[in-house]
Specification:
Elements: H1 3-17, H2 40-57, H3 64-70, E1 74-79, E2 82-87, H4 89-100, H5 105-128, H6 137-145, H7 159-183, H8 185-213, H9 233-245, H10 249-266, H11 278-283, H12 292-307, H13 314-326
Antiparallel strand pairs: 1-2
Helix pairs in contact: 1-5, 1-6, 2-5, 3-4, 4-5, 9-10, 10-12, 10-13, 12-13
């Protein structure tokens, strides 16, 4: 292979390195499209012809399908008895993009034109270049191909055509599925709304069940004193301290709260009613009464200990004992 052919190979490598080609060399060409070999000047003319067609495509994106049908799978360039094939799959992919989404015409055409111009510059340089007069061409070519930008350049593997055909089949299958959905749009709409209503109904049932499970939480379920008053607030306060000594602060706070309720009954603020909630007891005490503030703090501590997920601490129980003292439960 003479030096000009080696340089032509370099130009093809440079053109291929600027984008990946979905169509490998040697694949079947579109029917009716000749694949005649080009000389180097004719190759440049072919690039110019396609550049002009792409310029017109900017204003007429509907012609993308026709151009794709006219595009051969490869461009074969001959020089000095040697033949080199340049894939055109990247150009076909760009035309497909314009055909599928005309809104991307400007961007897709700009990318294709940029690549064509780069290929033309490389080919034109080969035409104008003089043959080397010494044997350093191979060394120069090896040095250029050893650069970082050419390290990933290689021919198509045996797996790439298979993967390309599989992806093409999947694309056709998805497009056909979308067409069937379009024909049965009413059914698809019905299924969508059925799913949406079912999900909303399931969420509503879950919320109602949660509310029903918590419906009893606002009420006090405390072991109240017997009807004859045998259980005094002193006894309950003592039991609260004993339970707290075992680090059972939740139960201790519950007993301390009930001791305060019985103590305030003894003071004449109310009559103990097992059906009342802790908030109803608090509303029975007027804001100007001295028992209101300690009972408010005690109620909030009881709510936090009895209903919240956070377990009470020793400090919480000490705060409760302080409020009991303020209520006269010393």
């Amino acid at each position: 292979m003479n030096c000009r052919i080696r340089a032509l190979l370099l130009a093809v490598l440079i053109a291929c390195a600027r984008g990946s080609d979905p169509i490998a060399i040697g694949e079947e060409r579109p029917p009716g499209v000749p694949s005649l070999p080009f000389s180097l000047p004719a190759y440049i003319q072919e690039i110019d012809r396609w550049g002009g067609a792409l310029e017109k495509l900017k204003d007429h994106p509907e012609s993308a399908a026709r151009l794709h049908r006219e595009l051969p799978a490869i461009w074969r360039v001959t020089a000095g008895g040697e033949s080199i094939e340049a894939p055109t799959g990247w150009l076909g992919a760009g035309l497909d993009e314009v055909e599928k989404d005309p809104k991307t015409t400007a961007q897709a055409v700009g990318q294709m034109l940029a690549r064509l111009r780069a290929m033309r510059r490389e080919a034109q340089d080969l035409v104008e270049a003089s043959p080397p007069i010494d044997g350093s061409a191979r060394e120069n070519l090896s040095e250029i191909l050893a650069r970082r930008e050419f390290r990933g350049v290689h021919g198509p593997s045996w797996l790439e055509p298979i993967v390309s055909r599989i992806l093409e089949w999947l694309s056709d299958w998805i497009n056909g599925l979308g067409a069937r959905f379009t024909r049965h749009r009413n059914i698809v709409t019905f299924i969508f709304w059925l799913f949406l209503i079912s999900a909303a109904g399931g969420l509503l049932v879950w919320m109602v069940r949660r509310l029903l499970q918590r419906s009893g939480t606002p009420y006090l379920h405390l072991p109240g004193p017997q009807a004859d008053g045998a259980v005094s607030w002193q006894h309950m306060a003592q039991n609260a301290r004993q339970v707290a000594a075992r680090n059972e602060y939740r139960e201790a706070i519950r007993l301390a709260y009930w001791a305060a309720v019985v103590r305030l009954e003894e003071m004449g603020l109310w009559s103990v009613d097992r059906a009342r909630t802790h908030r109803e007891y608090l509303r029975l005490v007027r804001p100007d009464q001295p028992q209101r503030e300690p009972l408010d703090v005690l109620t909030r501590k009881f709510e936090s200990a009895w209903y919240a997920a956070r377990p009470p601490s020793e400090d919480d129980f000490r705060t409760v004992l302080t409020q009991l003292e303020k209520l006269g439960c010393a």
